[in-house]
Amino acid sequence: MRSKDSGSYFCSMQAKRLSDMKPMETGIIGRVDCPEAAMALVEMGCCPGEEVTVAHVSPGNGPMAIFSGGRKVALRKQAAALLWMVPIAVANARSIGADELVAAAV
């Protein structure tokens, strides 16, 4: 199932927001909502095609820690909600490389 969003297509059936991922889950960033607001994340290496692993999730609405681009980054859940992830198991099952995943997300 594909959903239309702002003129681009993104397969949202298997995708989920980074803010909804659990510790030790790994995924590939497929889309960044509101790139203007997420510019700080992009500068830290959180851009489409990047592999991200959740390191820690604080209870409630607290921050979360992720591994991205070889470093550990803490971010607010509101910022993490801007990043749509394709779980790594889904990407591997489909044999999709990062470049093809980004192309499919656009």
Explain how this protein is built.
The chain is an alpha+beta fold and 106 residues long. The protein has a single domain (3-105), classed as SH3 type barrels (Roll). Helix content is 22%, strand content 35%. The protein has four helices and eight strands. It has helices at residues 39-43, 77-80, 88-93, 98-105, and strands spanning 3-5, 8-10, 16-17, 26-32, 51-57, 64-68, 71-75, 83-87. The strands form two sheets. Strands 3-8-4-5-6-7 form a six-stranded antiparallel beta sheet. It has a two-stranded antiparallel ribbon with strand order 1-2. The chain is globular, with a radius of gyration of 13 Å. The protein starts with a strand and ends with a helix. Residues 1-12 have low confidence and may be disordered.
